[in-house]
Amino acid sequence: MNDPTDLTGTGLSEAWVTELVERTLAEDLTGGAPLPAAPDLAVANDVTSSATIPPAQYGTADLVARADGVVAGLPLAARVFLRLAPGATLTAGAADGDRVRRGDVLLSIRGPVRALLAAERSALNIASRASGIATHTRAWVDAIEGTKARVLDTRKTTPGLRPLEKYAVRCGGGTNKRMGLYDVAMIKDNHVAAAGSVAAAVTAVRERAPKVAVQVEADTPAQAVEAVEAGADFLLLDNMAPAVLREVVALVGGRAELEATGGLTLAVAREVAETGVDYLSVGALTHSSPILDLALDLRAG
Questions:
Q1: Inter-CA distances, 204 with 168, 184, 255, 256, Å
Q2: Nearest alpha carbon to residue 123 among 162, 71, 174
Q3: Single pTM value for the model
Q4: Is residue 166 annotated as a catalytic residue, yes or no?
Q5: Is the predicted pLDDT of residue 263 greater than 90, yes or no?
Q6: Which listed residue (96, 165, 217, 278) is catalytic?
Q7: What is the pLDDT of residues 92-103, one digit of tens each?
Q8: 156 counts as catalytic
Q9: Residues 77 and 107: beta-carbon distance below 8 Å
Q10: Which phi and psi (to 5°) does residue 299 adopt?
């Protein structure tokens, strides 16, 4: 395995990860106040471990999967441990994006036991959340395997955790299409009402942000045709039955990318994908994924 803390290929910046690690540990150790720079001073805030564990006691802790799934966030979890135990030795047992089974050891950390236990919950919260999203995403990707459609996430993310959660979607085989309000223009019914028409809204966006891709929400085949003729790059096909989606694909397929959304479930995912749309947009990937159950098992000595 490579360096367990390596962020290469994650798309996550060093600065953002460092800030997340600090914020997450401070939430647990100082009630949100800035974390002491000295690891020993930070660990001292764990009143239970400080009272029950000698400062010189060393041990090895294993980050273990308690359920089958797809893992994500392991480099961030590793950095949580190193923040409180900078001299710890880390050994990777898995990498982000791997399918794992119950009982698999994902990461082993050898260091001061006080520090390992002080970091435990923060590391688990990050990795469990990210792995839950990756696992849920993989279920959707598997459900539509063999079709041309891809699974997309949305902006329905936990405040402050969007980079991590969208990275977790990628670990599960999904695709990020819109990171925020700045990189794709999404014209919905309220924008159309304010602008006066779909064409007016598209024109206004083109003039204001000529390099930004434009997506238009459509509820009917007629609206889909209107949006494409107005110059939309993508169509968001909202709450359309599979038969209607097939009609839209026949009318405008190839002239714009087509994204089905609204009311999608795993039970109908393949039927929707087989209509010929390019994407299935699933907000539940980030707003409703259960965590993947992970635990930290200490080996004394």
A1: 34, 14, 21, 19
A2: 71
A3: 0.96
A4: no
A5: no
A6: 217
A7: 999 999 999 999
A8: yes
A9: yes
A10: -110, 110
